[in-house]
Amino acid sequence: MQTTRQYRALGIGVVAVSLLGATVLLAEEAAKAPAAGSTHVMLTSGDLKWVDGPPSLPPGAKAAGMEGNAKEPGLFTMRLKFPANYKVSPHWHPADEHLTVISGTFYMGMGDKLDEAATKELPTGSFVVMPSKQPHFAMTKGETVVQLHGMGPWGITYVNPADDPRSKAAAK
Fold first, then answer.
1. Are residues 158 and 79 in the same domain?
2. CA distance readout (Å), 69 to 4, 14, 103, 132
3. Three-class DSSP category at 99
4. pLDDT attached to residue 25
5. How many domains does the chain have?
6. What is the layout of strands, in order, in the sheet containing 97-103?
7. Is residue 18 a part of any domain in this protein?
8. Which runs of E-coded beta strand occur in 51-164?
9. pLDDT tens for residues 70-95?
């Protein structure tokens, strides 16, 4: 009888120490996680404020920020609207790029040369994850809206510097 009580007390002690240890580990993991945003974001497509696309994209694109700031460290979400027959020359990004086709059809290909025959047709609802520094290119045939999200600062480096719209604008 005495032994049973000792085992029961020992068992309760082990469980208590285990729970305390798990709580400490969970607290440490929570401390490592990025802080949640302080503002709740709920947007309809009508709430978006479209502006001219960034100078790193060819003229004609429109952009609408949704969450965060793509120029600063941290999470961001934006939408990009491309007109028909729009092309983005081969380029890469410093961080993974996550893209969802919201409307229209987006065409993407891999490599350092824009090859329309090598593009994959991505209709509405398609999703792409492009690893950092992976050269790729894109185009549209009709107006297309995509949602881009990732970790900022977002950037774009063209494989051929002559294709960079920023250098073309500076030359004018």
1. yes
2. 62, 48, 23, 19
3. strand
4. 28
5. 2
6. 51-52, 62-67, 74-82, 144-152, 97-103, 127-130
7. yes
8. 51-52, 62-67, 74-82, 87-92, 97-103, 105-110, 120-123, 127-130, 136-140, 144-152, 157-158
9. 889 999 999 999 999 999 999 999 99
